[in-house]
Amino acid sequence: MSRKVYGRIKDGKLIEFPVYEIHIKNRAHPINWYTEALYQPKPEVDQFHYLKETPTVFGNLILVSYEIVPYSLNKVLSDIWKLNNPLALDGTEPTPPVFAEISPEIVQRVVTLTKLHVQEKLDAFAKTREYDDIGSASSYATSNVLKYKTEGERAVLLRDSTWNAFYAYLAEVQSGVSQVPKSTQEIDARMPVLTWE
To answer: Is the C-alpha dihedral spanning 159, 161, 162, 163 positive or negative?
Structure first.
């Protein structure tokens, strides 16, 4: 049986949430100072997502809805290492996970999230010179304007070298030459430095 969850509404705004009966009892507050929250049905989520609860006030009601949120690449990588080292709390160096022992679903998720991460870094770099994304910047490599042509050629060079570095690194991890990364910082360290010069 789940515990009832309450909130406190003042002037149409939620000023305290969540509150449980034990809190109300310990404060010696009347129960009618609080409103019991109503929850929408919980959607099912897979291992790569979590539910984010959002309480919203509708008059004198509190309705809690859910949003399905993906775990970040850092969280998925951290979980891989934790699964491999469930009791590594004594300060000893954790044992790197063996790539072949990681489930194909988790590998695919890491590859997908890493590709998104690499693309976002490239696009953010292009935006530092007012381009929409790396594809837009690269399209200026054939421009007749020297400034745009130079920036476009640099964007093409960095785009290509970054993806080459990504696939080379992925092959190293898959073959066991490099260990499974612990974080995006380790991935970034294997990618070219993105500069306009």
So the answer is: positive
| Separation in Å, CA 121 to CA 29, 57, 83, 164 | 52, 38, 28, 15
39-71 per-position pLDDT tens digit: 999 999 999 999 999 999 999 999 999 999 999
Q: pLDDT-derived band of residue 87, with 50, 70 and 90 as boundaries? A: low
CA–CA dist 122, 124 (Å, integer): 5
Q: What is the pLDDT of residues 121-135, one digit of tens each?
A: 999 999 999 999 999
66 SS3 class: strand
Q: 20 in helix, strand or coil?
A: strand
State the pTM of this model.
Answer: 0.83
Length of the chain: 197
At what angle are helices 73-84 and 104-127 packed, to 10 degrees? Answer: 150
Residue 62: count of CB within 10 angstroms of its CB: 23
What is the bridge-based pairing of β-strands 61-70 and 49-58?
Answer: antiparallel
